[in-house]
Amino acid sequence: MPGHALLSSMLLVVMAHLSRADGAVGTGKSKISAVFMFGDSIVDPGNNNNRLTEARANFPPYGQDFPGGKATGRFSNGRVPGDMLDSKLGVKEFLPPYNGDDLELSDLLTGVAFASGGSGYDPLTSIPATATSSTGQLELFLEYKEKLKTLVGEEEATRVISEGIYFTAMGANDIANNYFSIPLRRHQYDLPSYVNFLISSAVNFTMVSRR
Ligand SMILES: *[C@@H]1O[C@H](CO)[C@@H](O)[C@H](O)[C@H]1NC(C)=O
Fold first, then answer.
1. What's the CA-to-centroid distance between 205 and ligand 1, angstroms?
2. Active site residue 41
3. How far from 197 is each of 10, 190, 202, CA to CA, in Å?
4. pTM across the whole model
5. pLDDT 10s digits, 65-74
6. Signal sequence span per UniProt (predicted)?
């Protein structure tokens, strides 16, 4: 099915954004201090919990296989990819939401997720879902960096940021919930040119996040 092939290649594109701020991926000796996650519901651990939106998951049966059976806001019965990557990389067991209520300094020092259910690269995608747009997530990341500097000083903050690893999982809502559901973009772009627009947005997002 062509739609499926397209989504698969979109996913490949988004996953390819796996990058270290210092470009030191796979050098063996590199030590990862923190994990940062941008994206949509696939990787949102509860950033939408206090938001007036349908894109929320802090009620049963979500979380039924999570420790304590708690519906944390993860769009899953259990852990989400950020948690799995976090523990595989030896950083911590769970990647908390940046908008969470009980963030501690140790959480800020080891990474957080800025991902928001319903989000996408296209700014229009986040509007119906009242999600935090990709640009909004970058703004939160800037805010996070400033907060960290205030809390632990410039040098330590720079270490955390530069030894961190960054993931982005976004794009599915742009195709499924925007292009194929709302006519506006279909009047402006045919599918290949909309995909090019998304890829250009993904590249720009990655470049800006590395500044
Ligand atoms: C990405 O950035 C380039 C260079 O600033 C710009 O020309 C282009 O329009 C941007 N693409 C999107 C989709 O915003």
1. 10
2. yes
3. 12, 11, 9
4. 0.86
5. 999 999 999 9
6. 1-21
